[in-house]
């Protein structure tokens, strides 16, 4: 397994280009299952999770082509054969559950392995299933699989007991070919949900209200293909580089991003003292000599994103004073704390809150990544730690960050990937 080694201490300076958003690309590529035409997509990030998704779609019978240099992908789901997503594919990526809605909508049946829990929490899919059954699907759980059948899904008025991003996306895709109108209430408002709705509407769907908590979908007979649909920029990668610049007291220009997706993150990083200027598709950030402590609570969009919690914790670990970070989305998303402590951070966890007492500096150490964003946080810690840090199991990182070490190298970091 590859490792990443970092010699800390260099401020980051220069320009970094943001890649397409993993969490927009995943549902949008899966939405190609809803038509028998060929869909082409631009700005698709070259990530492990994208390759896992294309492998799954190929297994289902779609013809998938990806040009990782041009970041273009073509998916033709004409000859769907086997509406089954097997365990060995789903276990690699829980977002595979997103094929459930489209397969039932297109073929009337699906058999998808239940995604197990993961490092950050149990992550049940009960609301995905409850919504599908209210749309007329017969749902059975057998031998670790979800089996869903429906002659023809029908519109439903469905209330989400809690906000779920992929739950909203799964039901939105199921509803586009259903008979009649579907209303999704307490829906997720993430930009990735809006991007999926835009992609589906470009295919002839009739979706209104995406980005608000009430989404209305008028079922249509069929969808046509979409050509050159562009994936939105990755707001979490953008936030990760924002924190990196503030952390290393550097001056970085982040290009090809969408600042309007990052209000909460920009607000909090400004409060720490960093100077931030934004344009339509760029952000300039200059780190401040001293970092102020700021409290954060993760919330569904437009609140502070849980996917930025670990990265922000690194910034707070070398801030002046005390800060409190509360994680309200996942029940076990402080795994990175023990590794940060080994680097000298002073963090106390109680329930879903972490109290961080800023220390003057961190010290480099061999550390272990546990999930995607925790691995990013450990790389960030290495950038400012005294001495050398080696992050193991960087396959977690490769799931959601395109060539992260190369982007940091270009900004002046002393960082290299050690291939094993
Ligand atoms: C999406 O996961 C993202 N993944 C996650 O990003 C992100 O952290 C999360 O949303 C929250 O923003 C993708 O978009 C592919 P949820 P998702 O359903 O949809 C509970 C990353 O690092 N829940 O919004 O799986 C669940 O347990 C990843 O890129 C139910 O109880 O998350 C959690 O506590 C990590 N029942 C909360 O809702 C359900 O049926 C939010 O989960 C569904 C969810």
Core attributes:
420 residues, alpha/beta, 4-stranded mixed sheet, 14 helices, globular, binds ligand EPZ
Count of DSSP H/I helices: 14
Please state the average pLDDT score: 96
**What is the β-strand count?**
24
Strand order of the largest sheet: 22-23-1-24
Major sheet attributes: 4 strands, mixed
Attached small molecules: ligand EPZ
Care to give the gist of this entry?
The chain is an alpha/beta fold. The protein has 14 helices and 24 strands. The longest helix has 13 residues.
Provide structural commentary:
This protein has 420 residues and is α/β, with parallel strands linked by helices. Helices cover 31% and strands 25% of the residues. The chain contains 14 helices and 24 strands. It has helices at residues 22-30, 48-59, 87-90, 100-107, 126-134, 165-175, 191-202, 235-247, 263-271, 309-317, 335-342, 372-384, 395-400, 404-410; strands at residues 3-7, 13-17, 38-42, 63-67, 72-76, 84-85, 109-113, 138-142, 145-149, 157-159, 181-185, 206-208, 214-218, 229-230, 251-255, 275-278, 282-286, 296-297, 322-326, 346-350, 353-357, 366-368, 388-392, 414-418. It has a four-stranded mixed sheet, covered by helices on one side. Strand 4 (63-67) and strand 5 form a beta hairpin. Helix 1 runs parallel beside helix 2 and helix 4 (100-107) packs parallel to helix 6. The longest helix is centred in the middle third of the chain and has 13 residues, at 235-247. The model has no long low-confidence stretch (mean pLDDT 96).
List the helices and strands and how they pair.
Blueprint: E1 3-7, E2 13-17, H1 22-30, E3 38-42, H2 48-59, E4 63-67, E5 72-76, E6 84-85, H3 87-90, H4 100-107, E7 109-113, H5 126-134, E8 138-142, E9 145-149, E10 157-159, H6 165-175, E11 181-185, H7 191-202, E12 206-208, E13 214-218, E14 229-230, H8 235-247, E15 251-255, H9 263-271, E16 275-278, E17 282-286, E18 296-297, H10 309-317, E19 322-326, H11 335-342, E20 346-350, E21 353-357, E22 366-368, H12 372-384, E23 388-392, H13 395-400, H14 404-410, E24 414-418
Parallel strand pairs: 2-15, 3-14, 6-7, 10-11, 18-19, 22-23
Antiparallel strand pairs: 1-23, 1-24, 3-5, 4-5, 7-9, 8-9, 11-13, 12-13, 15-17, 16-17, 19-21, 20-21
Helix pairs in contact: 1-2, 1-7, 4-6, 5-6, 6-7, 8-10, 8-12, 10-12, 11-12
Bound molecules: ligand EPZ.
């Amino acid at each position: 397994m590859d490792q990443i080694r970092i010699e800390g201490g260099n401020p980051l300076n220069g320009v970094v280009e943001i890649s397409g958003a993993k969490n927009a690309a995943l549902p949008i590529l899966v939405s190609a299952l809803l038509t028998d035409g060929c869909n082409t997509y631009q700005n698709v990030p070259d990530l492990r999770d994208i390759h896992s998704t294309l492998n799954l779609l190929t297994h289902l019978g779609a013809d998938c082509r990806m040009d990782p240099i041009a970041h273009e992908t073509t998916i033709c789901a004409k000859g769907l054969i086997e509406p089954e997503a097997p365990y060995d594919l789903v276990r690699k990526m829980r977002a595979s559950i997103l094929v459930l809605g489209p397969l039932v909508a297109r073929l009337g049946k699906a058999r998808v392995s239940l995604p197990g829990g993961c490092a950050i929490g149990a992550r049940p899919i009960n609301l995905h299933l409850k919504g599908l059954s209210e749309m007329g699907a017969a749902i059975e759980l057998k031998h670790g699989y979800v089996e869903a059948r429906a002659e023809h899904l029908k519109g439903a008025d469905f209330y989400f007991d809690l906000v779920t991003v992929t739950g909203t996306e799964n039901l939105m895709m199921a509803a586009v070919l259903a008979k009649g109108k579907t209303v999704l209430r307490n829906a997720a408002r993430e930009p990735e949900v809006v991007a999926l709705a835009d992609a589906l509407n470009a295919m002839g769907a009739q979706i209104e209200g995406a980005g608000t908590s009430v989404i209305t979908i008028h079922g249509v007979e069929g969808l046509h293909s979409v050509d050159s649909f562009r994936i939105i920029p990755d707001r979490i990668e953008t936030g990760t580089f924002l924190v990196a610049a503030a952390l290393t007291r550097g001056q970085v220009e982040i290009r090809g991003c969408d600042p309007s997706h990052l209000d909460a993150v920009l607000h909090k990083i400004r409060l720490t003292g960093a100077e931030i200027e934004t344009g339509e598709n760029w952000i300039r950030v200059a780190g401040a000599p001293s970092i102020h402590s700021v409290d954060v609570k993760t919330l569904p969009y437009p609140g502070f994103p849980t996917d930025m919690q670990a990265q922000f914790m690194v910034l707070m670990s070398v801030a002046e004073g005390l800060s409190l970070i509360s994680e309200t989305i996942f029940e076990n998303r402080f795994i990175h704390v023990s590794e940060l402590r080994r680097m000298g951070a002073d963090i106390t966890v109680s329930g879903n809150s972490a109290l961080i007492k800023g220390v003057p500096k961190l010290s480099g150490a061999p550390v272990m990544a546990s999930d995607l964003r925790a691995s990013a946080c450990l790389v960030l810690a290495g950038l400012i730690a005294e001495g050398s840090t080696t992050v193991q199991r960087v396959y977690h990182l490769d799931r959601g960050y395109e060539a992260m070490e190369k982007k940091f190298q270009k900004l002046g970091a002393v960082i290299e990937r050690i291939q094993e």
